[in-house]
Amino acid sequence: MATAEIPYQETVPLHHPKTWLGKYVFSQDHKVIAVQYGITAMAVGLVALVLSWLMRIQLAFPGLLEGFGPDEYLSAITMHGMIMVIYLLTAFLLGAFGNFCVPLMCGARDMVFPFVNMLSYWVYLISVILLLVVYPLMLFTDVAPTGAGWTLYPPQTITAGTPGADWGIVLMLASLAIFIVAFTMGGLNYITTILQARTRGMTLMRMPLTVWGIFIATFLGLIAFPALFVSAVMMLLDRLIGTSFFMPAIVSLGQKLEYSGGQPLLFQHLFWFFGHPEVYIVALPAFGVVSDLISVHARKNIFGYRMMVWAIVAIGILSLIVWAHHMYVAGMHPYFGFFFATTTLIIAVPTAIKVYNWTLTLWRANIKLTVPMLFALSFVLTFIMGGITGLFLGNVIIDIPLSDTYFVVAHFHMVMGVSPILAIFGGIYHWYPKLTGRMLNDTVGKIHFYFTFIGTYVIYFPMHYLGFVGVPRRYYETALGGTFPDFYPPSAHYLNIFITIAALVVGIAQLLFIYNLVHSYFKGEKASDNPWGANSLEWRTPQTPPSHGNWDERLPTVHRWAYDFGVPGHDTDHVPQDVPRKESA
Amino acid sequence: MLVALILLAVVLGSVAFNFLSPWTFLELGSNWALIDFTVLVTFVICGVAFVILGVYMAWWVYKYKYVPGRLSEYEPENPKLEARLTIVTTIGVVVMLAPGLVAWDQYVRVPPDATELEVNSEQWKWSYRLPGEDGIFGHAHNKYITFENPMGIMEGDPYAEDDIIITSQTVKIPIDRKVKVLLRSKDVLHDFWVPEIRAKMDSVPGMVTYFWFQPTLLGEFDILCAELCGRGHHTMRGEMHVVSLDEYETWLDAQVTWAEMKAGAIPLSPEAMQGRSVAESNGCFACHSLDGTRMVGPTWTNLWGSTVQMDDGTSLVVDEAYVRESIAEPGAKIREGYSSEMTPYEFSDEDIASVIDFLKSQIQEEEQVEQPESVE
Amino acid sequence: MTETTAPGNESIFTATARDWSSDVTTFKGVPWGKAMMWIFLVSDTFIFTCFLVSYMTVRMTVTDPWPNPSEVFALAIPNELFGLQFFESSIPVPLLLIAIMTFVLISSSGTMAMAVNMGYQRNKKGVVLLMVATALLGMTFVGMQIFEWSKLIIDEEVAAWQNPMGAAQFGSFFFMVTGFHGLHVSAGVAYLLIVAWRVGRGHYDHTNFEIVEITGLYWHFVDLVWVFIFALFYLW
Fold first, then answer.
1. Which of C30, C50, C62 sits opposite A261 (nearest CB)?
2. Interchain contact, A397 vs B34, CB within 8 Å
3. Which domains are seen in chain A, by residue range?
4. What is the pLDDT, as a whole number, of residue B322?
């Protein structure tokens, strides 16, 4: 392998800030930016968690919450969904893990444009503030958060029958547009760093799968977010100056509106051209993280690395041509159903291969059941459940009875809610020692794991069956004692109550995690440079936590892939990437 | 050991739940048995894959747990095994997809002998139109909609005269007759869904969407809205009665045609007309019916001057003070059996007076009820 | 992949495969900024694609009549100038203004290409002059666009929400897409001027003036997008 080229970063000096503000607030160090992204995303995620409690309480015990009417309920589902998908998962997996892992794992000093990277975080923060400012505004004005559902389907989004149709939606769309700007700034950095700023010997096919996942996810984001941006702009124009992009002639609550000739379906196409890749923007980094976690903690090479890489690439490409499987009942041309059902089910093949390879990695391994490993294992099981229910919904005819029911809710929470969250938890438990120099508490971590995994599973697994029974999603009341007569067996209500209680317990269990993060930061056991015995470069930094610039004068040289575990003929059970190959090997 | 057991418990527990829990599809009420069959095929294939993968995971986690000093087997890849797994997966996918696509092909091809039923949706109620004796619908578009012409039927279209207009939320269809459902929307997206029928489709303003089915089960079924349509989404509930042909004919004879509806419209006084347009432009009729149907809010038919029960056990006579309070501060008094969902409105005195005039016009009994004293 | 470390007569496929399987950089000899600009332009392409595809869908399905572009965008040549009468009456010429605008913008791509060439020769003065010329052409374009907008808004009474000649979407899409493109041109003008100023100040003397080429990439992209807008809005 040619290693003649000298990484450019080795020759340019880093700009070291002198002030406290420059080091910790307006820092250009990718690790600090990662932490900023992570903390902000978790904070906004807590808001969404509280919203989900309110929703669950209303569903199980209608009327218990004073002042939580249909308007508040719809606002809660909308904000919960949008926050979780975009401001938590996308921001955490790409903003936090992306920033932390990409330069360290590629052996770079930092992102290629640290200043742009810093801007990315601050613009993201602006978008978060703009999103949440609606809550303080609610107290003083009659501005309400939008209740259009996270899919924001027009015409409903901007007509009077929907809460927040006047200004709540404007804030939401503006916040999304700004988020896309922030994402683009960060994403350009990740891709350029991965393509152009690796260290000696680090070929693409030696990169850890985490980097691969982030790489393809970012690329998808740069292609898919424009569609959301465009639809947000067009809807803002519809709302603010009265254009009719998405608005046909309608009579809303007795009033003829000034619109005519627009296409509601156009919005759905644009939205899902973003929305489906978005699923993989969240899933692919999680795939990568889990692959690395399983391999490291099972002390075995990831099974079928090349297949794993090509599966990520294939999923990424295919994810761009399946978007209309979200629109089977939307009234689009029926023949689209054949095409999109077929492409959707084809995606199952590379995805299944990934699942097989994770499972096969366990075979004849030497499995350490550490907390990160527990989360990785639970991810695989949860993801299988979410994946196979996806096969139900992707098959167009099965989607007909199940779409817009709790089956869909259960499916996407399993596959892109719980699974990536489990991967995020696993990743945090895994990399926390490198980030802070201290270990997270193992016992608390295990308790947190059992509550989270079993808890979320018993929330969402039975929920599929509510969908079979026919409980529609986004209903303010589905319970006994509600205003409207029920069409499903009353026993389903007890399931509803059970799910709510489980959700409350799981939510409270997350406090353990926050406690663990904070407590261990000050009191945790000191971590060694490589506590898990991992091979990838981030564990080979001269300092723990790595200093600004990550490496000494010279960047490390890579001689092998990141998965040399259990290689015969070595003293240890793992051989890090920067250990030279023996002459004989 | 514990972890392996938990993984195993989760897998086997899921299977047990599937077989032991009482929750599954409602009884099939239409010809779409092929949908249920495809679901079954998918269930079997996916269930088997889930169990195999889960059990292997649990078993290997138990069998290959950490032993210090032991090396795991070094096998970067096994192309033969991976190829086999890929082929097996592909076969599984094809087996699931094939019946699905066949069923979809039937779903989108409406048989020529299907009769048409137009479903009109608006926030938050359903209404229906049948093509009448000529079998052809009159042309309709949202731009023609007025209060007297709620379906936006084009003026002067000869095909429209015999169209049957059903403004109540209940529709009846004869058993075993193939029905092509045409969906229109006045305002936002809705979705016509009867769980027992399985089929559903969104209604989109500006478009006519469709699906078809053949009811095979007698009974009264709920029509749900399955696409988020604003704050009253969960209350948008119609009824579909699948009945014998005789019963259907009797019901059909009692329905009014578009021509009869136009002729039979009760003239309103100018004041009542004014009140109606105030109420209409404020969206009152999204929640208050004018035909006695129960919606989110109480019906306005025969409301004025009647004695109504409140949820705190008291009762009162609907008079000007009550109407005024209910508009400005809807939460102050709640009718029994209803919940506080209305937002406050600021009406001028003139508007309130006109709305009261309209309420008075909605009293349908022969004799006028006694006027409350507070009204001049 | 302009400069590969490839020995001699290697096919493009083997060269690509070798570059992609090599370490350190995938695109050999490509500076970070240039790689980043390329990736950004891919993303930006999707923004314009979404706008234009939306436009095409609506245009094809809308039922109200769509105005004839060669009439709406015609520019009348005045029959007199400075008191001198040239013609009997003013002559409307279809697409006259737009042809001039397109010509101006394409010319600016030419000056930009020359600036990049000057950059390679390390001719700072040439770079600055040509970049300023490019910026001036860009400003001319934006100025003419403002003129065209005002003509549409005042004379034809077209607005984003209304269109006396038929489908309201005509105005909506026209103003949105040309406006978005105009913003790109304006941003490009600012970008050009800043880079030109910094080149003049000697800010990039230690580099190979890649920044000029990177700026050029953006500028050519904006021009290329205009070609599509031109075709889809004015010729369709």
1. C62
2. yes
3. 28-247+259-540 (1.20.210.10)
4. 87
